[in-house]
């Protein structure tokens, strides 16, 4: 089986080529891929719905990503990922502030972010100020 056959869809986005894996009716993984990865059209209703929701988000970052998730992780990682999803769009929070809210350390929060199987949907982007913020679509000029 080739790498692209294991994805339920591979598509281009403003932040690069993305691959998704669907488990049941839920997103289980979102992966940033190289531009050389072959595109794979979404052929299941669930994959089509997820790709459509992500594309809507790229067109309008204020769009709420209502995507059902089926992601593995430790109970602690799940707790961090739920807390990350609860941060309102556009709000910035440091790992330290989130760690304090969760009663843990900033390093533990960072490690949970590193294990995030669905970046963009569970926002965990570190900005230059070492604050958690959502990844915004890249804007290019010609």
Which features would summarize this protein structure in a list?
alpha+beta; three-stranded antiparallel sheet; Arc Repressor Mutant, subunit A; 20% strand; 2 domains; 142 residues; 4 helices
CATH homologous superfamily of the largest domain, by name?
Winged helix-like DNA-binding domain superfamily/Winged helix DNA-binding domain
Task: Specify the number of helices.
Answer: 4
For the record, what CATH class of the largest domain applies?
Mainly Alpha
What percentage of amino acids are in beta strands? 15-25%
Q: Helical proportion? A: 25-40%
Order of helices and strands: EEEHHEHHEE
Describe how the helices and strands are arranged.
Elements: E1 9-13, E2 16-23, E3 26-33, H1 45-59, H2 75-86, E4 93-94, H3 95-102, H4 106-114, E5 125-126, E6 131-133
Antiparallel strand pairs: 1-2, 2-3, 4-6, 5-6
Helix pairs in contact: 2-4, 3-4
Q: How would you sum up this structure, described in words?
A:
The chain is an alpha+beta fold and 142 residues long. It folds into 2 domains: 4-59, no CATH class; 75-133, Arc Repressor Mutant, subunit A (Orthogonal Bundle), CATH 1.10.10. The protein has helices at 45-59, 75-86, 95-102, 106-114; strands at residues 9-13, 16-23, 26-33, 93-94, 125-126, 131-133. A 3-stranded antiparallel sheet has the order 1-2-3, covered by helices on one side. It has a 3-stranded antiparallel sheet with strand order 4-6-5. Strand 1 (9-13) and strand 2 (16-23) form a beta hairpin. Helix 2 crosses helix 4 (106-114) and helix 3 packs across helix 4 (106-114). The chain is globular. Mean pLDDT is 84; it is low at 126-142.
